[in-house]
Design a protein that fits this description.
single chain; alpha/beta; D-Maltodextrin-Binding Protein, domain 2; 44% helix; globular
């Protein structure tokens, strides 16, 4: 029995040694956020239907047999933005490349979290501003360094019921711009038949688009907010008046569902919503967001952009960084799948695709003058403005919170958050 015990002990020890060596061999293949040596970990917030389109793009790229294949990690948006500072500060398990919204770039840069692309782009002659939508490209240039490459530019436009427009104001879409005056004219007729002219939808882009048309700026110096002003009052007052006159959907109503059932004429919404709109039986179209003027050169269409960024990481060497940019450069010429998700790719090569040209959202890119209407609100503290509008905008539009109180409180809250942010980063 003793001899057998010694034999088992020896065999067990040998097994442990083999196991340890096997473990060491495997560990050398692990880098970044859990990816292998020849794998690029790609974080993005595409957990909805568009996630399938992104996965299809990644699968197509990986089939080209690149040196570094892409590992797709789609995270719930709020979770991803919570995780990012944690992993960057820990300096471990940092994704090799990440998609973030354009509005977050300045804070990430100022918090010293981003690696610039400049040292690598000389090897990619087509990855230049002339090959991308200007607004989406320029947002990544901060203090003369390139901190991001755009995937798309997504815009808040105006869906309309073609049959109801034909009934109430047949010429409203002749110039592809629906003015607030035209919405009012439709509202005076439509409300008699219990039809809302204008759906009260996502407040932030509705407010910011009209605020900019009224000459409003979120900040004059890029830091101090300028929110309690005449432009803000004009913006809220217009919406207030339309609510009071009965031109809009009512507080608590689902404007999108009412539009889908033919009870709303005009619905301001994102181009990314068209896949849901397509499921309805209504005869619909998509055009510019509501405007004060019919002059296209004065138009403002709220937009944002998904941008590829490199968070600082010692685990991502030059070879892997080149692998990341190889993928981004491939996407530049293979973005039709992304267009199928309802988005507008930022790469202008999409304009050569005949299938894309027939898509509703193409209106915003096909005409260079339309491209100029696309506005990304790149104020460094845009997130704080957004938080306030999300919490109080609906109440202000429907009059349960006064315009004066709302603007005063927004100015104070954003100012306080900026002060706290500066204190925490000193």
């Amino acid at each position: 029995m003793k001899k057998m015990s010694r034999l088992l002990l020896i065999l067990g020890t040998l097994g442990l040694v083999v196991s340890l060596f096997a473990g060491c061999g495997n560990s050398t293949k692990k880098t970044g956020a859990g990816g292998s040596k020849n794998e690029i970990t790609f974080w993005n917030p595409f957990t909805g239907p568009d996630g399938k389109n992104m996965q299809a793009m990644i699968d197509a790229y990986n089939k080209t047999n690149p040196e570094y294949k892409i590992k797709n990690v789609s995270l719930k948006e709020t979770d991803m933005y919570t995780k990012i500072p944690t992993v960057v500060n820990s300096k471990k398990n940092i994704p090799d490349v990440t998609i973030v919204h354009a509005e977050r770039l300045k804070q990430y840069k100022d918090n010293h979290m981003l690696t610039a692309y400049d040292d690598y782009l000389s090897d990619y002659p087509k990855m230049t501003g002339e090959n991308y939508v200007t607004e989406a490209w320029n947002i990544g240039n901060i203090e003369n360094k390139r901190y991001s490459i755009p995937l798309d530019i997504h815009t808040f436009g105006l869906y309309y019921n073609k049959d109801l427009v034909e009934k109430y104001l047949p010429n409203a879409l002749d110039d592809q711009i629906v003015t607030f005056d035209e919405i009012k004219e439709v509202g005076e007729k439509a409300q008699k038949e219990n039809i809302a002219s204008l759906g009260v939808s996502w407040v932030k882009p509705n407010y910011l688009s009209l605020y900019a048309q009224n000459g409003g700026e979120l900040s004059k110096d890029g830091t101090t907010p300028t929110l309690d002003n005449a432009a803000g009052k004009k913006t809220y007052k217009l919406w207030n008046n339309y609510v009071k006159e009965g031109y809009t959907t009512k507080d608590g109503e689902d404007a999108t569902q009412l539009f889908l059932t033919g009870k709303v004429v005009f619905l301001p919404e994102g181009i990314w919503m068209q896949n849901q709109i397509k499921q309805s039986k209504i005869n619909w179209g998509l055009t510019n967001a509501p405007q004060l003027s019919a002059d296209l050169s004065q138009a403002v269409n709220w937009s944002s952009s998904h941008q590829f960024v490199l968070f600082n990481s010692k685990e991502r060497n030059k070879a892997k960084t080149k692998g990341v940019i190889d993928f981004i450069d491939w996407v530049r010429d293979h973005s039709m799948e992304w267009a199928k998700s309802g988005q507008n790719p930022a790469s202008l090569s999409i304009l050569e695709n005949e299938e894309y040209k027939k898509m509703p959202q193409a209106i915003f890119l096909l005409d260079p003058e339309e491209q100029k209407t696309l506005k990304i609100f790149d104020y460094k503290y845009n997130g704080y403005v957004s938080e306030y509008l999300e919490a109080h905008g609906v109440d202000t539009i429907f009059g349960t919170e006064s315009i004066d109180d709302s603007l005063v409180n927004m100015q104070k809250e954003v100012t306080d958050k900026i002060a706290k942010d500066k204190t925490n980063n000193e």
